[in-house]
Amino acid sequence: MEILSEIFELACLPEDGVFHSSLTMVFYTHSLSSVCAAWRKVALATPQLWSKLCINDGIKVLADVEWVKKWANRSRSLPLDVYVSLCRDASLQLLEQILECRHRIRTLDVAGDPRPYTALFNLPRSSFSQLEQVTLSFRHLDGFLFPSQIEAFLDAPNLYHVQIKGPACSSAFLKALVFPVEQLTTLSFDSRSVISDTAGAVCMDNIHACINLVNLEIALPLRRGLTSNMYIFLPLLKSLKIVCHDLYDFLCCLTLPLLEHLTLCGYCGDIGHALTTLADFQRRSAISLSSLTLEDFYGNDVGTWMKNLTVTMGMLPEVQSLHLHRMRFDINLLLRALTCSEGSQVLLPKLTHLGLQPYRPPVAYPSELTSMVLSRWWPYDSETTASPGLIRLQKVTLRGFHYDEQISGLSGLEINNM
User: Fold this and answer.
1) Could you give the angle at which helices 92-99 and 66-74 cross, rounded to 10 degrees?
2) Using CA atoms, how far apart are residues 323 and 86, in angstroms rounded to an integer?
3) In whole angstroms, what is the distance from residue 124 CA to residue 102 CA?
4) Is 70 exposed, middle or buried (0-12, 13-18, 19+ CB in 10 A)?
5) What is the radius of gyration, based on Cα positions, of the chain?
6) Which of 82, 165, 304, 350 has a C-alpha 20 to 30 A away from that of 96?
7) In which domain of life is the source organism classified (predicted)?
8) What DSSP string describes 13-70?
9) Cβ-contact 412, 394 below 8 angstroms
10) Is there a contact between 275 and 308 (Cβ–Cβ < 8 Å)?
11) Widest CA span in the chain
């Protein structure tokens, strides 16, 4: 029975490990429990199967909403993870059934049209005693009047992770939404489409108030960029991701003394300006970055791009992990700069993990990669290095490259080709 129970749990997991409202988990779990009496007994004795609720009213949903209560009861006392997308006014009763279990909800991921969520918006504070993570990604906000304040997430003692996506990054919604900013450890604003300057200012005010943040993601394409000279000091932040063409606007505002992991995405402007701003940010925060990821960078002057990039990397000697994803230039130029030779200056001397992903896979194996790897690798029993202080390269991750076996046999070097 225990083995079958574990098999049922594994069978109900999404292939990519990511839960969302469109998963057919509800019908799949019902199907498992309806095969025979023995399977039903095992399913009903496995509360983990019923602790995740995925509902999308754009997909067929059982007409009788009482099934929600039965589902929650089968999960017994386990916390509930709820992923729901509602677009129809007829789903009001469905939401009410879900909210009856609100004191057991640990994860709340809501999407769709805001109209069916009126009951959620009008809940009083202290409504979610076990809530740890909330994701809000409404669409079609035009013309919808939010309450003056949405207090449902206040006084949720375990709420540490908040993500606001898409049109939910509007000024009307953000001004109404109130959450316990001082206790949050993870915050994400992910619009991807241009937002108003007012909405951007509200987002920055929220970030400024989140003094205990450890992880922050900003994806806010602004109409005119940041116009204020706001100073934001986040003393505990360790991971920052900025997805924006005007990323230097955000970096100019931030001081992050404990930052370890930095991801910059989607820049096509003056790369010299951007990387100079990064260097100023590094000096201002006095950070010791251990991980740097650059994604979707491109520019017309590749020579200037590489010059500024190598200068910037020279200011980040503590970086151990470097990832370059979907870069629109010849990656061999950078690999050549990272190749160590006796007597020359070494970029990123502590680099142990390199990750590469081309803009349009699959592409040819980088011609300079083997030379770069061999210059940073040596057998465990050898003390020979190209430069004093150089750390041995331990892992190379390649996504979307034709595989070459030249470096696959090096002892102690892990090669992941995906």
Assistant:
1) 30
2) 37
3) 12
4) exposed
5) 25
6) 165
7) Eukaryota
8) S-TTS---TT--HHHHHHHHTTS-HHHHHHHHT-GGGGSEEEEETTS---S-THHHHH
9) yes
10) yes
11) 75
Contacts of 144 (CB under 8 A, 6+ apart): 114, 115, 172
| DSSP calls for 106-143 | EEEEEEE-SGGGHHHHTPPTT--SS--EEEEEE---TT
Task: Look up residue 104 and give its two tokens.
Answer: 């057991």
Pair type for strands 105-112 and 353-358: unpaired
pLDDT at 322 over 90: yes
Q: Let me know: does 183 contact 214? Beta carbons within 8 Å.
A: no
- Tokens linked to 211: 């003094």
Over the stretch 15-48, which tens digit does the pLDDT of each residue have? Answer: 776 777 766 666 666 666 666 777 677 777 678 8
| Spatial separation of the C-alpha atoms in residues 27 and 45, rounded to whole Å | 18
Q: In whole angstroms, what is the distance from residue 229 CA to residue 226 CA?
A: 8
Q: Is residue 321 left, alpha or beta, with left meaning phi > 0 and alpha meaning psi from -120 to 50?
A: beta
Give the C-alpha distances (Å, rounded to integers) separating 154 from 116, 180, 338, 362.
21, 6, 49, 48
φ, ψ of residue 201 to 5 degrees: the values are -65, -40
- d(CA 199, CA 169) in angstroms, rounded, equals 7
Delimit the domains of the chain by residue range.
50-350, 351-418
Contact 81, 50 (CB under 8 A): no
Task: Measure the CA–CA gap between 411 and 391, rounded to whole angstroms.
Answer: 15
Q: What are phi and psi of 337, to 5 degrees?
A: -70, -30
Q: Give burial (CB, 10 Å; 0-12/13-18/19+) of 259.
A: buried
- Give which of 162, 164, 202, 168 is closest to 182, Cα–Cα: 162
Q: What is the pTM of this model?
A: 0.87
**Residues constituting the chain:** 418
The Cβ of residue 91 has, within 10 Å, a number of other Cβ atoms equal to: 23
- What CA–CA distance (Å, rounded) separates 408 from 418? 14
| Cα–Cα distance for residue pair 357/351, rounded to 1 Å | 17
pLDDT in tens, 213-266: 999 999 887 766 665 577 899 999 999 998 876 666 788 889 999 999 999 887
Q: Which residue has the tokens 């979610």?
A: 128
Contact 353, 392 (CB under 8 A): no
pLDDT tens-digit series, residues 375-392: 998 877 666 565 778 899
User: Can you tell me the distance from the alpha carbon of 245 to that of 269, in angstroms, rounded to the nearest whole number?
Assistant: 7
